[in-house]
Amino acid sequence: KEPAATIVEKLKDVTSYEGEDAVFECRLSRETTQDAQWFLGDVPLQSNEMNEIRVQGTCHTLILRKVTLEDCGSISFKVGQHTSTA
Predict the structure, then answer these.
(1) 22-53 per-residue burial string, b: 16 or more CB within 10 A, e: under 16
(2) Under the phi-then-psi rule, with left for phi > 0, alpha for psi from -120 to 50, and beta for the rest, what region is 80?
(3) Where in this chain does the record put each Ig-like domain (predicted)?
(4) In this predicted structure, what is the pLDDT of residue 3?
(5) C or N terminus of the chain, fewer CB within 10 Å?
């Protein structure tokens, strides 16, 4: 059983203007196959035309495309028992 990954670089608050992209990055202690999940408020986010979710090694990135006022709120990244919010 693989040891749990921890969050070593937490999310930073991002301010964006309507129509811009908002980029959030979180870095883990190690590469993991463990489920990592992004949330806007309580809503789990999927990769689609509005959101791009990328994983490169230990770096997990969420890009919210052309944000609107409805996208305002807290973004959370969860892996295992660990959570980071911005």
Answers:
(1) bebbbebeeebeeebebbbeeeebeeeeebee
(2) left
(3) 3-86
(4) 76
(5) N
Amino acid sitting at position 12: K
Closest CA to 16 of 73, 82, 78, 76: 73
Beta strands in the chain (DSSP E): 7-9, 22-28, 36-40, 43-44, 51-56, 59-64, 75-79, 82-85
pTM of the model as a whole: 0.91
Q: Count of CB atoms within 10 A of residue 57's CB?
A: 9
Domains along the chain with CATH numbers: 7-85 (2.60.40.10)
Q: Model confidence over 21-78: pLDDT tens digits?
A: 999 999 999 998 778 999 999 999 999 999 999 999 999 999 999 999 988 899 999 9
Q: What is the pLDDT of residue 1?
A: 67
